[in-house]
């Protein structure tokens, strides 16, 4: 990744210093990032928080996902951009099975409507990504279960509890996304808003959600 970013930056004549941090998420602090005093700090995550252990597994201390959110708040980033998969599997087998069924039924229906069945990319998505996620969420217990999704409303509570303040969505950006989806994508794709989250879905079921945050008491130009 570092080489690809460096090549891209070189082509665009943009100065870049890449540094990888090899550590567990919940151990990373602002000191590990080597941020200069006048640098803009952006924390960006797309769909990875769902694999952090929660309080159903970690009972003797704060859960890793709460620790990571708290550490992000302590970093005081100019903006924290969070994208989540909207689905709460819960602890018990039946609830996990039901949520996985509903979520992946929507995903496979979307693939049926937008990709040919003989597509190799679709095969990889169904077999290596969606299939593995469903299997792990349903069949695995304890620390073996990596898929621990939550709804955007649950993440909203977690983020606020960790000392983060939500930023309003940019109206111009939201309108641009709506127009692109309306004019260039399948009619059953959904773009909605709720509580300053930008929601993506299929046939009325919300599948993904995105939001922006800063630390409590911090200002932001975003």
From TrEMBL:
The keyword tRNA processing does not apply. Residues 139-214 are annotated as: SAW. Keywords: Transcription, Transcription regulation. The keyword Transcription applies. PROSITE patterns: GRAS. It holds the Pfam family GRAS. Belongs to the GRAS family. InterPro entries: TF_GRAS. This is Scarecrow-like protein 9.
């Amino acid at each position: 990744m570092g080489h690809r970013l460096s090549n891209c930056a070189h082509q665009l004549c943009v100065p870049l210093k890449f540094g990888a941090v090899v550590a567990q998420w919940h151990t990373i602090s602002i000191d590990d990032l080597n941020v200069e005093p006048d640098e803009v700090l952006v924390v960006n995550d797309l769909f990875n928080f769902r694999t952090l252990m929660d309080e159903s597994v970690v009972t003797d201390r704060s859960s890793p996902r709460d620790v990571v959110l708290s550490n992000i708040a302590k970093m005081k980033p100019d903006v924290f951009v969070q994208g989540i998969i909207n689905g709460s599997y819960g602890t018990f087998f039946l609830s996990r099975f039901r949520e996985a069924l509903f979520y992946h039924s929507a995903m496979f229906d979307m693939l049926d409507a937008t990709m040919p069945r003989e597509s190799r990319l679709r095969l990889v998505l169904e077999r290596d990504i969606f299939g593995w996620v469903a299997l792990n969420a349903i069949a695995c217990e304890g620390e073996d279960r990596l898929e621990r999704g939550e709804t955007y409303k649950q993440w909203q509570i977690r983020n606020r509890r960790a000392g983060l303040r939500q930023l309003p969505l940019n109206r111009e950006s939201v309108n641009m996304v709506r127009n692109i989806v309306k004019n260039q994508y399948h009619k059953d794709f959904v773009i909605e808003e709720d509580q300053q989250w930008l929601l993506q879905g299929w046939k009325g079921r919300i599948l993904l959600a995105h939001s922006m945050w800063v630390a409590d008491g911090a200002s932001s130009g975003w």
